[in-house]
Design goal:
Strands 1, 2, 7, 8, 9, 10, 11, 12, 18, 21 and 22 form an eleven-stranded antiparallel beta sheet that branches. By secondary structure, the chain is an alpha+beta fold. It has one domain: 4-Layer Sandwich (Anthranilate synthase), CATH 3.60.120.10. The protein has helices at about 15-25, 80-90, 165-175, 200-215, 235-245, 295-305, 310-325, 365-370, 385-395, 445-465; strands spanning about 30-35, 45-50, 55-60, 60-65, 105-110, 135-140, 140-145, 150-155, 190-195, 220-230, 250-255, 260-265, 270-275, 280, 285-290, 335-345, 350-360, 380, 405-410, 415-420, 420-425, 430-440. About 30% of the residues lie in helices and about 30% in strands. The longest helix has 20 residues, at about 445-465. The chain has ten helices and 22 strands. β13 (about 270-275) and β14 form a beta hairpin.
Length: about 475
């Protein structure tokens, strides 16, 4: 891989947020933004534009738009197998630069891909224009290293471009990242108020139905969610600018398609795969809101630490994740390297575990995705039965929510978040979903209030409220 321009020794004040908001105005742009303060998992941010091709899946059929220098998969090839072919065509093993992204695919895998992998029902029709999967191939990008306080621009040659053409693409990306955008913090970004697909009583009744399934022995846990939605009244880049200012997280993302945008403030890693085959997942279970003052905040954190219910919930999901990784990793390599660490974000405390494994020989990215998707922390256990109950009790398709957002690099590294705390803009409709894990001793009112706590920040962003 060649660096398209010399790296700057330092970055200006306000970077990378200033460059991220500038790039958000550009169609087909992508930003994977990590806030500082979360250790090694949040060191790098990626900025990309000018994609060469887009690969999408809708209702089980895949399509490609744009230029592609290699032979395209046959139209009848199943979507995940078609993606495997594309990944193999640009895979590189000869670069030892250590750069986390070396050209490749950035985008999302929606929750509604699950029926391609398991026999699952779908009661509701798809709403809106967003595909079930959307990945764009980027060979021009920038990487910000917060530890070194530097940014580097890159252009990799997979399409036979001249050196002048590569340099021109880097210059174009630099220009896009320095346009600037403003935001009036007091301005609501939607018309009127947000609406929900559930009333409070309806959601509590749905939780009670999950508890009945639990008592009957159908499942040990299920994640139940509800959607909030409204009509956007301001440009999407203003929504993104406000979101990244208010929501510092390790796995933030912004994706912009032709008629849709994704703004994710996710605290959770779904999958990391390194070129040497190491796999990591970081399930989250257990949430408390931040307190009104330092003492109250400490008490809420301690309450989460001591909660037997939340501890049992996370333990169940860790076991599920170990089982999922065991489908594609060396059995003896799967282990829990950290269990139930309390991590604090701007509006909530979370309990987090880390599960690792080593991918078996001859297994690849696609095998890993097919063996683990969607993440167990946002479905339940057993996973398939939990997803059947989710389809029965929720009021619409999840779409992208609880799918995954991130990148697959040409050199074999993949990093994906769990698409929670994620706002979707489709046309002028803006929406987000929030949910929680239900276990047999869950309280329906407490579960409803937990969804409000998890959605409080997104609500305040859209309504222009103080946090």
């Amino acid at each position: 891989m060649t660096e398209g321009d010399a790296a700057v020794d330092s970055t200006p004040k306000g970077f990378p947020i200033a460059c991220a908001t500038s790039l958000s105005c550009v169609p087909n742009s992508a930003v994977l933004l990590s806030a500082t303060g979360y250790g090694s998992i949040s060191r790098y941010s990626i900025f990309a534009a000018l994609p060469r091709v887009r690969f999408e899946v809708n209702e089980g059929r895949w399509s490609m738009a744009g230029e592609w220098p290699f032979e395209r998969p046959h139209a009848s090839t199943p979507p995940f197998e078609a993606l495997r072919v594309l990944l193999q065509q640009t895979h590189r093993t000869d670069d030892e630069s250590g750069t986390i992204f070396q050209g490749g695919w950035i985008g999302y895998f929606g929750y509604d891909l699950a029926p391609l992998l398991e026999q699952l029902p779908r009661r509701f029709d798809r709403v809106g224009s967003m595909p079930d999967l959307s990945l764009a191939y980027y060979d021009t990008f920038a990487i910000h290293d917060s530890a070194a306080n530097r940014i580097a621009w890159y252009s990799v040659d997979r399409f036979g471009d001249s050196a002048d053409r590569q340099a021109s693409r880097v210059d174009e990306l630099k220009s896009m990242m320095n346009r600037g955008t403003g935001l009036d913090e007091a301005t609501p970004l939607i018309h009127g108020d947000l609406q929900s697909e559930f009333t409070e009583n309806e959601f509590r009744r749905a939780v009670a139905q999950v508890i009945e399934y639990l008592r009957a022995g159908d499942i040990f846990q299920a994640n139940l969610s509800q959607e909030f939605y409204g009509t956007l009244s301001q440009p999407v880049e203003r929504l993104f600018a406000r979101a990244i200012t208010r929501c510092p997280v390790p796995f933030g993302a912004y994706l912009r398609g032709d008629s849709w945008s994704v703004i994710s403030a996710s605290p959770e890693r779904y999958l990391l795969l390194t070129p040497d085959g190491r796999v990591e997942t970081r399930p989250i279970k257990g949430t408390r809101p931040r307190g009104r003052d330092p003492i109250h905040d400490l008490l809420l954190r301690e309450e989460l630490t001591l909660s037997e219910k939340d501890a049992a919930e996370l333990t169940m999901i860790v076991d599920l994740e170990r089982n999922d990784l065991g489908r594609v990793c060396d059995f003896n390599s799967v282990r829990v390297t950290s269990h139930r660490t309390i991590e604090s974000f701007s509006t909530v405390h979370h309990a987090v575990s880390v599960v690792e494994g080593k991918l078996r020989p001859r297994m690849d990215v696609i095998d890993l995705l097919k063996g683990t998707f969607p993440g167990g922390s946002i479905t339940g256990a057993p996973k398939i039965r939990a997803m059947q109950i989710i389809d029965e009790l929720e009021r619409g398709r999840r779409g992208l929510y609880t799918g995954a957002i991130g990148y697959i690099s040409d050199h074999g590294r993949m990093d994906l978040n769990i698409a929670i705390r994620t706002m979707i803009v489709d046309g002028d409709r803006v929406s987000y979903r929030v949910g929680g894990g239900i276990v047999v001793d869950s309280d329906p009112l407490a579960e409803y209030r937990e969804t409000l706590a998890k959605g409080r920040q997104m609500r305040s962003i859209l309504l222009g409220e103080d946090q």
